[in-house]
Design brief:
It is a single chain. The protein is an alpha+beta fold. It is built from 12 helices and 13 strands. Strands 7, 8, 9, 10 and 11 form a 5-stranded antiparallel β-sheet that branches. A 4-stranded antiparallel β-sheet has the order 1-2-4-3, with helices on one face. The protein is extended and about 100 Å long.
Length: 426
């Protein structure tokens, strides 16, 4: 393989003309013939026994050329690109210019490569770190939430339904006098004011009594997730069986004993304060770190190919799909329930994807500038960590994960630590 020409056609995009010599091409053609000959049936020969020259005489000298180039091209293109000092960020496009037994093959390759990056002022970046104070009001809200979790529902008689009550109802909905799928249920627990049902439904139960039978008239929203129901007017027959309300425990020392390991309410309150202060400190750390790397991204100078952003977005979509699949959902159902589509989903990831790509490029450059290195022991430890996370053997991880990718990730992690350790949090 030889690179005949190397032309920059636009920023981060190059056009290479590479040649594959006749000897290498002949070996590839012969390999294709040996691989497919058992499928060839020519009159006068047993199936798979026709010599190559007979096949080429019948079907043409170039009978195996296309498959031979398809076998050769990926490795030859990669060798050419790496030989020119480029790192691909997308699958290269190729065009066969010529191929012959005498002269071999010439291929025009269009390659999008990783951009040149410069970065400045990556040490000593100043970032404001603000730890929110734990207010008495916030403590009261946390204690109230604890009361809520330890409340119990009790049946209420001789009063009308009100916001916050739990009602047990039967309902059946009709559109134009006909029932519709999903519009019927019995002994359904509904918290009034929760917004669980479509707008207007829960409000029409307020003021009713246990034992009442009544109608509820509502309009489905225009953007309702079910196209068949969106914008339609519906009437529901409703039976209110039972009315319940939450009975809250008193906030006193007995409450502290029942819900924690503490003897007094003051002790419980102090423990909650300390927990909240720790959470606030951790949140401040995360926000400060986020701000740090946003500032780092601003110091990265590079003409970044759009394809790198799109690839990062696709990676984030795949990650989301994996996570929702573990909850028994498909991407199609997720999009339907979220009232969105794939284009809107990808657009929602775009800003963070662009940030992550810029930060990654910046950290890779820092690793080179600082001459950071990774040891074999560090790579081995990371492989074992991946194996433990996904319940694989270390051998399995080596089969499916490229060691180069592991090393690159570890270098980026070291560069990230360097940036954080040198930062000034004020």
């Amino acid at each position: 393989m030889a690179v005949i020409t190397n032309n920059k056609i636009e920023e981060n995009k190059y056009e290479l003309l590479i040649s594959i010599n006749a000897e290498a091409f002949e070996k590839a053609v012969s390999s294709v013939y040996l691989r497919v000959r058992n499928q060839i049936n020519i009159k006068g020969f047993r199936k798979g026994k026709a010599p190559r020259h007979m096949v080429e005489k019948l079907y043409g000298e170039d009978a195996f050329y296309e498959d031979a180039v398809r076998d050769l091209a990926p490795g030859e293109i990669m060798n050419a690109v790496e030989g020119e000092g480029f790192e691909l960020v997308d699958t290269p496009k190729m065009e066969v210019i010529s191929m012959s037994k005498e002269d071999g093959v010439e291929i025009k390759v269009t390659a999008t490569v990783k951009p040149e990056v410069t970065i400045s002022d990556y040490k000593g970046i100043e970032v404001e770190k603000v730890v929110k104070a734990v207010t008495e009001e916030a403590l009261d809200e946390r204690l109230q939430a604890l009361r809520e979790r330890n409340s119990r529902l009790v049946t209420v008689e001789n009063r009308l339904a009100q916001d916050g009550d739990v009602v047990i109802i039967d309902f059946e909905g009709f559109i134009d006098g006909k029932p519709f799928d999903g519009g019927k249920d019995e002994n359904f627990d509904l918290v009034l004011g929760s917004g669980q049902f479509i707008p207007g439904f829960e409000e029409q139960i307020i003021g009713k009594s246990a034992g009442d039978e009544f109608k509820v008239n509502v309009d489905f929203p225009e953007d309702y997730h079910s196209v068949e129901l969106a914008g339609k007017s519906a009437e529901f027959n409703v039976v209110l069986h039972e009315l319940q309300e939450k009975e809250m425990p008193e906030l006193d020392d007995e409450f502290a004993k029942d819900t924690s390991e503490f003897e007094t309410l003051d002790e419980l309150r102090e423990d909650l304060r300390q927990r909240m202060e720790k959470l606030n400190s951790e949140e401040a750390d995360r926000e400060a770190e986020d701000a740090l790397f946003r500032k780092l991204a601003e110091n990265v100078e590079a003409e970044i190919p759009v394809v790198m952003y799109e690839q990062k977005i696709s990676e984030m979509v795949r990650d989301l799909e994996f996570r929702i699949s573990r909850q028994g959902l498909t991407m199609e159902s997720y999009l339907r329930f979220s009232n969105t589509n794939m284009t809107e989903l990808r657009d929602g990831f775009r800003e963070i994807a662009q940030l992550q790509v810029r930060v990654r490029l910046g950290l890779e450059k820092i690793a080179k500038l600082e001459n950071l290195e990774i040891t074999e022991e560090e790579v081995e430890a990371e492989i074992n960590k991946i194996a433990e996370t996904y319940d694989y053997t270390a051998e399995k991880v080596r089969e499916i994960v490229k060691l180069k990718a592991v090393e690159e990730d570890l270098l980026v992690e070291k560069a990230s630590e360097l940036v954080k350790e040198s930062a000034k949090f004020i």
